[in-house]
Amino acid sequence: AHFLALAEEMERQLSGAEPGRWIARLDPDRDNLFRALAWCDRPDGAPLGLRMSHALRHYWSSRGLVVRGHEEAQIALRRPGAQVRDLWRCKVESAAALQCAWMGRMAESAAHAAESLAIAEEIDDGERSSIALRQLAAACLRMGDRLAARTHSERALAVAREIGNDVQIYDSIFGLATLHMNDAELLLAEPLFEEVLAMRTRL
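Structure (tokenized):
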């Protein structure tokens, strides 16, 4: 519980003034983090393993340990007791999608994002749905399927607007605007970028 609390506090502080300092606080306890993750193999440890895997996703990437982070995510998802299709499984599928994208494994990234989306829709979580749709869009784009990327991007924005989440709206608009710009559709991209600029003053 101590190391879960430490990891989750670090995650909360990443959007603050000193994210690097908070990430560095975990370095002396790296071996203890590995032991805490291994402890989650106990019969009742699956929920804790999912939460820790999600909380540590940015720590792994910041320390060049994306492969290890992805391995831990896969272990967390496979543990007995982790198959409940709830918010934490949804988040770890999303984390695994991000890690696969960082490693250039786009088909796997898309598969994890699709599973995260399916769970998000089952539990009626619009924020997680919008995030998963953007991850799907990114994976499809890098695999050369621009039509699918656009469809997912448009859905991500529609969901974000429906729930009124400004952060998700901003990220979804930016992604869709960038797609339009890269396709030389400047008349479609321009109003979206203008909306992004207007939103930056509020976020």
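The mean pLDDT is 94. The chain is about 75% helix and 0% strand.
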